[in-house]
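Before relying on records like the one below, remember that each one covers exactly one chain. Contacts with other chains, cofactors or solvent are not represented anywhere in the record.
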Amino acid sequence: MDSKPDHAPAHFIRHIIEADNASGKHGGRVVTRFPPEPNGYLHIGHAKSICLNFGIAEEYSGTCNLRFDDTNPDTEDEEYTNAIQADVRWLGFDWAERLFHASDYFDALYGYACELIRKGLAYVDSQSAEEIRATRGSLTEPGVASPWRDRSVADNLALFERMRAGDFPEGAHILRARIDMGSPNINLRDPALFRIRHAPHHRTGEKWKIYPMYDYAHCISDALEGITHSLCTLEFEDHRPLYDWVLDQLDVPCHPQQIEFARLELNYTITSKRKLLTLVRDGHVSGWDDPRLPTLKGMRRRGYPPAAIRAFCERVGVTKKQTVIDMAVLENCVREELDRSAPRALVVLDPLKVVIENFAADQVEWLEVQNHPKDPAFGTRRMPLTREIWIDRDDFMEDPPKKYHRLAPGAEVRLRFSYVIRCTEVIKDSDGRVVELRCQYDASTAGGQNPDGRKVKGIIHWASATHGATIEVRLIDRLFTVPDPAAQEDFLAHLNPDSEVIVREARAEPALQDSTADSFQFERVGYFCRDAVDSRADAPVFIRTVTLRDTWARINEGDGA
């Protein structure tokens, strides 16, 4: 494939690759990689990088590697490695046999470090971490050279070998590149290459007592894997000169091009690993898969279709300008996908009993209804209409305003898929609360018929009180009440108290309980999914994936936003 597909919008990375292919650079190859650190769960920001790296490779008949940046044994775990692989697969991508780890290259990285020492381009610094920070300089002042900067090559090699052997405590020495302490780019002021860590590695065990720094390991790993285009987020733009410097000094198989793009930021949420950990550790959410979190694990549990996330990443585009994307853009992508793929069901969240008095007590009328109004391929299901049914309390008003098209004393509505009913009596309890409605149905209005020509505008959903199912429904909403919680002094003070509302006895049509589908549109209510974690065969739990429309936009309009 020589160019992007017709449906794909142009952006600067596609332009770079197409220019490289036209010039014959890299021999027309396109090799990318997704390089997560296995120290946590992936979130929506990582989804953009996954979709970009794997998507670009696929578009240009290339390949994409999955490589774990496992250079910090203190924070990494096999649990995260497995979770990341599951997330990438869930999004629809496959690395085939191209699964790598930075730890695969530890021997090579050590050897390249020795090569830099022999060239006089690296040295062992015996200053403390505090001393190194104090002499690094600032944006306006140059750094100060280490007193150990001019150690002999022989001494540096000997010390570095003893560091590897574990002869020194952590912090006693560090290997630094010998570049330029006066560089205006602080990343070039003799950056660290290796540090001492007496910690076992989850893959290499006790073999190593020194571990490479990210900036050093990353570029060499790219080169060893034959990466052509190393795509990363904007915070690494100032690191690119170091990326190029390391590769320029060494005899590596190739020199990839680092290209930076703006990371994905969403409003009304956070992606900071530290803040996410606080939410989980302190019990503000139920875990890393809590459907209110922006983790891919949480989004999967919430019922977000992977196709919607891929469409969202394509829609927001790839730019150099850092912007915050409105959550509504993601939610609209989810709605669009679920509108096509989710069968329909009728569910009553706040049940109010209705007795259809002219319907026999033992009468059951089975209605054959479509599972999807736009796609006959979804088939049909049977719904039981009985004398006693449930409607949503919001669909009745005792003293309604003008142009109210739902049920009221003396008013008519159509039951979805069924008859027109008229409210003839309102029954209240001793506190004056409406507990039951008595109604009459018009048998001549079956199947949407209005034989006398009268117009009934209101159509409401319902469920049989005697043949329906009782389900638990969790109404999930945005976790924060402010658009930028990360910028607040105390982000926890802005948690949305209504981010999860549990309805323990919602009423549903019986077909819902037996359906094998994962996601549904509860008509007039929203899109929901069956919770794979808490559901039982006899007690299903449904989580709201997204509302039918952007209610937050209406709230903000009402506030004058």
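The longest strand covers residues 420-428.
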